[in-house]
Amino acid sequence: MVMAAVAFHHAEKVYPDGSRVISDFNLEITDGELLVMVGPSGCGKSTALRMVAGLEEVSNGEILIDGQVVNDWPPQRRNIAMVFQNYALYPHMSVRGNLEFPLRMRRLAAAEIRQRVERAAAMLDLTALLDCKPRVLSGGQRQRVAMGRAIVRDASVFLMDEPLSNLDASLRVQIRTDIAALQQRLGITTLYVTHDQVEAMTLGHRVAVMRAGVLQQVAAPRELYENPANVFVAGFIGSPGMNVVRGRLEKDDRGLVLLLGAARVPVGEGTRTGHPGLEGWCGRSMLIGMRPEALSLTEAGAGLMPATVRSAESLGHETIVYVDAALETVATDVAATARGDQAAPPLAAVLPGHRPFKPEEVLNLSVDPDRLYCFTPEGERI
Amino acid sequence: MNTSGIARKRRWSGRAAGHAALIVSVLLFIVPVLLMLIGSLKPDERVLVEAGTIKALWPDSVSLQNYADVFRRADFARFLVNSLFITGSIVSAGLLVNSLAGYAFARLRWRGRTLLFNLVLAVMVVPFEAIAVPLFYQVSILGLRDTYVAQILPFIANAFSIFLFYSFFIGLPRELEESARVDGAGVLRTFFFIIAPNARPVFATVAILSFLTWWGSYLWPLMVTIGPGVRPLPVAIATFYTLPPLQWGDILAFGTMMVMPVLVVFVAFQRWFVRGVAASAVKG
User: Fold this and answer.
1) pTM score
2) Nearest-CA distance from B136 to chain A in Å?
3) Smallest CA–CA separation between B110 and chain A, in Å?
């Protein structure tokens, strides 16, 4: 199996009308790695993928595959395989025809074509469907054919453009697992695009978060969750995303204290370790991040703040409760875009077990002082 | 009668009126064809005599004598072969050339594409009669009068056909082509292996429309043909009409045989034709 590293060096995409979709993009995907590019709609992740495929021209900078600049190479010369969001199966060909097509285009011998098609079909449990036309297949089967068309090639790089977004939730989980297993088995360098952060976190060896054509952070999923580089990443990764509020850092006889509305929260050791330059921010305003999982219910008067329930979602094993509190919450632009307004977002808390909260119910919440995140007023991590 | 009964009666009479209008329209189109077909089967002297009676549609006796007379009095087989060759060449070469042009306008990026496409659209509104004389001069200068080439070459590239192909291709999912390119196909192989097989409705539509246009073409063949050697059926029937003695049964038999290939082509491609026309209509 041929593998290859993929790299973006200062890559940019500017359309003729002047709109800049990708800006100064630098990213290296190593041999055999599964890197997931994630971000909200319109952030440029699919464009970046299509630039690797050769389906979009590179306006500036370079794209390298296996150390070679491929900017001017047509797609057919790049030895890449791509799975499209709508699968792009050839409707007039059978499953066998679809699997054979890339091999016929490379003029392989008939015996080898047959052998490779049968091997791929067996691997993806498609053998019984080889003579069917795509229109009679279910969504999951079509997805497997699209995967088969990619793996039959022995391509050096896999590109996947939101391959699960047309499937229902349960099938998505199953095929996500299949893709991870297949990638591990074949060890092919894979670039995977999705807008679903759960998909990104569960699939990727590393995850690249993008926003408005700019790479925000590249890291392993856990690192991304625990050490987001900015407010955007903090808000995008995690479900629900991180709560961000305005606050102020002070120092009193107990040490560093964060002022959040009327509450004073001592800065715990864990928080201090994660922010080496934090003391320099004493007396200054900043943005404070709190994971919904770091909030908990406490007794009246002992908590961070009283909060009024806006709504609650019980998932059985846990309850997500959205509350209004006397804090100045800040919308990461993902949430604001989703809501389509500029209203202050509620605070989200994830509490264990099923809890039947009622709207307008008043709760007392406290936050784990070791799990706070501090950002500059511009949203960069301190 | 209660209110719902009145409403039902109104709906029924409205539907009956609609059907009656459709039946009248169908009769208007089909009666001349039936008169031609039935008249061609009657003894020559009965054709005009019975034209105004019910016997025009219900003959006493049936005979193929008129058809035999056509073959005896004119070189019908030759005219038929000429028409088939000329129309078949225009249609088949036109399908290739115009589909490729439509694809290039719809999908490929090249300098001057918009300008050239606007020119193609502009050509669509120019009637053939306006360019017939300059085209005739051109053909004469090139020494192509009284040849098949003069009757085929100027009509292969067709603005309307290009426009129909363009409208269809612009609506095909772009991912199909992108997938083919990633799979290793160049532009031409993408077109012939992926695009064309998925564009059967528009190919059928263009085939039928151009077949109908050129099968019945009269003015241009009349201008460029001199003798019967390369003359197609429409010019031949005009000549046959003037050939004494004037025999209506023979003329109707000639006409019937001339219409048959059109019906065959239409029936063969009808399924795709309807889809193609519907698709073009939806896409505007």
Assistant:
1) 0.80
2) 44
3) 14
**Angle (CA) A62 A67 A73, round 5°:** 55
Residue A258 backbone dihedrals phi, psi, to 5 degrees = -100, 130
Check CB contact under 8 Å for B183 and A88. Answer: no
In this complex, do A88 and B189 lie within 8 Å of one another by their Cβ atoms? no
Q: Which residues of A touch B186 (CB under 8 A)?
A: 74, 76
pLDDT digits (tens, 9 = 90+) for B95-142: 999 999 999 999 998 999 999 999 999 999 899 989 999 999 999 999
Here the ipTM equals 0.82
| Token pair belonging to A241 | 């995303």
Residue A2 — very low, low, confident or very high, per pLDDT cuts 50/70/90?
low
DSSP β-bridge partners for residue A347: A323
Measure CB to CB from residue B173 to each of A81, A86, A153 and give the nearest one.
A86
Is A105 in Cβ contact with B182 (below 8 Å)?
no
| Position A3 confidence tier, pLDDT thresholds 50, 70, 90 | low
Q: How confident is the model at residue A68 (pLDDT cuts 50, 70, 90)?
A: very high
CB contact under 8 A, A74 and B186: yes
Q: Which of A376, A380, A372 is nearest to A256 (CA)?
A: A372
Residue B276 — very low, low, confident or very high, per pLDDT cuts 50/70/90?
low
A101·B186 Cβ contact <8 A: no
E strands in chain A: 6-14, 20-29, 34-38, 60-65, 68-69, 80-83, 157-161, 189-194, 206-211, 214-219, 243-252, 255-260, 263-266, 285-290, 295-297, 305-314, 318-325, 347-352, 362-367, 372-375
Give the chain A residue nearest B194 (alpha carbons). A90
Where is pLDDT greater, at A301 or A22? Answer: A22
For the residues A303-320, what does the mean pLDDT come to? 87
What lies within 8 Å, CB to CB, of B44 at 6+ separation is: B65, B66, B69, B247, B248, B249, B250
**Chain A interface includes B184 (CB < 8 A):** yes
- Helices A95-105/A110-123 angle, 10° precision: 130
Interchain proximity B183–A153, CB inside 8 Å: yes
Least confident of A48-52, A144-148, A253-257, B53-57: B53-57
- Say how many C-beta atoms besides its own lie within 10 A of residue B103's C-beta: 25
Bridge partners for A341 per DSSP:
none
